[in-house]
Design a protein that fits this description.
CATH class of the largest domain: Alpha Beta
CATH topology of the largest domain: YefM-like fold
Number of domains: 2
Shape: elongated
Distance between the termini: 43 Å
Number of strands: 3
Order of helices and strands: EHHEEHH
Length: 80
Amino acid sequence: MTTMTATEARKRLYTLVDEVADSHEVVQISGKRHSVVLVSEEDWSAVQETLYLSAIPDMKKTIIQGLKTPVRKCKKELDW
């Protein structure tokens, strides 16, 4: 993870936003009192979705069970 000061980040903000979005590398920005992390919107959405799915009871077990199911045993039509 790259770390830089808030002053450095401010100087190259637009370039930094493009770099983070393209590379999916996280950048830590250190201020005088606090530090923050710059992450791409796509990666943040993935984190949020993972947290949401992790909060559903038995979701992990269901996903693992689904991964172990051979494709030939899957339904061709869903009952939705």
